[in-house]
Amino acid sequence: MASQATLLLQKQLKDLCKNPVDGFSAGLVDENNVFEWNVTIMGPPDTLYEGGCFNAIMKFPEDYPVNPPTVRFISEMWHPNVFRSGNVCISILHPPGDDPDGYELASERWNPLHTVQSIVLSIISMLSSPNDESPANVDAAIDWRENMEEFKQKVKRCVKKSQDLL
Q1: Is there a catalytic annotation at residue 53?
Q2: Which of 17, 74, 113, 155 has the greatest CB tally within 10 Å of its CB?
Q3: Nearest to residue 71, comparing CAs of 96, 49, 94?
């Protein structure tokens, strides 16, 4: 018998296939594993990432939607809220409840009402408006704050690499 997580993920994938959302596409890495998705995010218009086509892997826990998935860019990404490993660091991907470090309100963190669509739209928003207050990539945050030309050049290189892979 399929778990609640399996049924929910199958439904969300079916919904995305029937009603695609501008700015991204999603599908399974392996048709036999609904817990691991390929996600392609198009660089948002009027941002430094415009024209890029960035690939990421979204992995869901067995207890989804109680706990959030992880998202890791496999395309090169230079951004204050993306670790050098490619892991995305945004509030809605943090476990539910109070933040032990006190940086985030519980209402900003994961809740089971989020969907794949709301997660990816949050990532697209992150590309448009980096949060350099609590960066995952300190060097990118420093470039963002203090050396915008260097930041732009590094992002431009990432966009070009993502286009070369098409």
Answers
A1: no
A2: 155
A3: 94
